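User:
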Amino acid sequence: MIPGFQAIVEERIKKAQQEGAFDNLEGNGKPLNLEDLNLPEECRMAYKILKNAGFLPPELELKKDIQNTRNLLSACSLDSAQRPEIQKKLNYLLTKLSTLRGGRTLSFSALEAYRENVIKKIS
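Assistant: Predicted structure:
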């Protein structure tokens, strides 16, 4: 954006705020819905349109199932008899997602190792 233009835009936004132009916007005073922020910015609008129409693309539906299964796995105790079955389901879903993306297969353990390495680097 051109520096002078940016200053004009900022000035007009501040003036509109002072005049109360934004006071009656939908969602004013309500918490933000952060559900869509897990998606890349360029995909959010398309996702919202599809979601409002009651449709999710297969990949997003699969990602939702994967997240739910991960949550279930993390809530499951380490010595639970159900843990291997949940792990198997998660591996299946990850393989299915990989297939949708072009056949690159990653096991759950490889993804977990990658996740832990990323967390170590960020910390």
